[in-house]
Amino acid sequence: MSKLTPDLTFWAKQTVLVTGGAGFLGSHVVALLEKSRCRNISVPRSQTADLRIASVINDLLRKTRPTMIIHLAAVCGGIGANQAEPGRFFYDNAIMGIQLMEYARQCGVQKFVQVGTVCAYPKFTPVPFKETNLWNGFPEETNAPYGLAKKMLLVQAQAYREQYGFNAIYLLPANLYGPRDNFDLQTSHVIPALIRKVLEAKERGSDHIDVWGTGTPTREFLYVADAADGIVSAAERYNDAEPVNMGTGRAVSIRALVKLICKIAGYQGRIRWQAHKPDGQPSRRLDVSRAQKAFGFRAHTKLEEGLRLTLDWYQNRRAIREKAIA
Predict the structure, then answer these.
(1) Which residue, among 2, 59, 55, 49, has the nearest Cα to 21 in the 3D structure?
(2) Which pLDDT tens digits describe the chain residue by residue (326 residues)?
(3) Of these residues, 121, 146, 160, 267, which one is catalytic?
(4) DSSP 8-state secondary structure symbol assigned to residue 143
């Protein structure tokens, strides 16, 4: 449940286009918009609305006539996926956002909510990451193309606000996790990958799991329902040029994270660290004070609670699939 009370009158007047609205984060945002009594929500699907094509975007906006766009559509994944397709991760994310924002401006959209990525921060950012540190260095190499593509949309949003008075805001969420996440081991992020590995090792009776890296990096994780709450709250209440971090303000080492997932899953096997695999950025923890001051956002789901909910959802989904196959 959302901890912030939405303005039902505000949302009843909005026509909202949510790109990526059928995906992991987007589905939670759409559900919250519906609870907020937003009656006019459009969710384009990638199969029929390729946002890399300018004419498709133009047609979409003219058909749906949104007052607000929440842009969540993205090509993303873990370290392995970023390393495998850096060109695609740069081009697709940049071209979708750049063209969508430009056509939104041309069509008179009143507000544009751009969701960025913590990967945009420099590799050696002082902890906690402050929004003012965003331009003080190059991102961590394994996901720099993705991070830079997303960061260019902040430049565009601020430039459009200055020249055209276009109300575009930019949010920087911490690493997300939760129900409906991607659990494909080739493309998933760390939490769903670990949950799947641990559960499958337990089912096989394996005495170990292999985990990338050394386990020493720290990460901040934001439960997806909390992220949706923050995005919808910012969409309603925040109208400034400066980017805004969204997270818990608390970090955990990958080593501690693996142990916690093993504990929740009831797995007692060994953890074999693959130190020859990349760790990614050494440390990530956000200063979340601006979000609290600007639109009252605070994350409220503790990591262990969120992990239990995510693991339970994944197990239930697998059980449903196995029953359907049988």
Answers:
(1) 49
(2) 446 788 999 999 999 999 999 999 999 999 999 999 999 999 999 888 999 999 999 999 999 999 999 999 998 877 778 788 999 999 999 999 999 999 999 999 999 999 999 999 999 999 999 999 999 999 999 889 999 999 999 999 999 999 999 999 999 999 999 999 999 888 888 999 999 999 999 999 999 999 999 999 999 999 999 999 999 999 999 999 999 999 999 999 999 999 999 999 999 999 999 999 988 888 999 999 999 999 999 999 999 999 999 999 999 998 888 777 76
(3) 146
(4) G
The helix/strand/coil state of 250 is: coil
Residue 30 near residue 45, CB atoms below 8 Å: no
**Catalytic-residue membership of 164:** no
For 252, list phi and psi in degrees, rounded to 5: -140, 145
Distances (CA, A) of 30 to 6, 55, 119, 171: 14, 25, 24, 17
Give CA–CA dist 170/323, Å, rounded: 43
pTM of structure: 0.93
3-class DSSP string for 19-69: ECCCCHHHHHHHHHHHHCCCCEEECCCCCCCCCCCHHHHHHHHHHHCCCEE
For 186, phi then psi, to 5°, come to: -80, -25
